[in-house]
């Protein structure tokens, strides 16, 4: 099992700043200039970028459940939607 040792990029989209999305953003950032060149060459409707992660955000859910068990509610910044596969 690998471990990410570097700092993860922030996600600036409101409500989408999760560890999972930070991992995706960090992996995608070095490819942005190449993707831009491909968009210019072939057009944005002719290329696709597929990225994904599995369980890098599971610890956030575990912490939220522990908080819920102790406090009777989820933390203010926790939203189950962030953990759904979409």
Automatic annotation (TrEMBL):
Record protein name field: Beta-ketoacyl synthase N-terminal domain-containing protein
Organism expressing this protein natively: marine metagenome
């Amino acid at each position: 099992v690998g471990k990410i040792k570097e700092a993860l990029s922030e996600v600036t989209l409101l409500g989408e700043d999760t560890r999972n999305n930070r991992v995706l953003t960090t992996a995608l950032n070095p490819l942005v200039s190449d993707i831009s060149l491909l968009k210019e060459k072939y057009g944005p409707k002719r290329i696709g970028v597929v990225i994904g992660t599995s369980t890098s955000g599971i610890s956030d859910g575990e912490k939220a459940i522990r908080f819920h068990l102790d406090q009777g509610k989820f933390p203010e910044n926790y939203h189950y939607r962030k953990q759904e596969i979409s």
